[in-house]
Design a protein that fits this description.
mainly alpha; about 90 residues; 4 helices
Amino acid sequence: MATGWAPEGAVQDQIDDTVDSAVQHARSRLPAGESLTHCEECEAPIPEARRQALPGVRLCTLCQAERDEVRSEGYNRRGSKDSQLR
């Protein structure tokens, strides 16, 4: 159902473009290049399997988990009406 002068599927096209943009942004933030053999924060060895799975990895799993935890604070992931009213 088009609204106004928008062609059929314009809303879906906009959603697709937004998702594509977010994916490109996320991919641009992924590490690239040669992986480190030891964590740059704690000097713990990084397992070979992790280095092969994530080219350019610079942190061990524990340090990466801590960094991810800090970044995710403050986001409303529940999406409930009550949490949005706070």
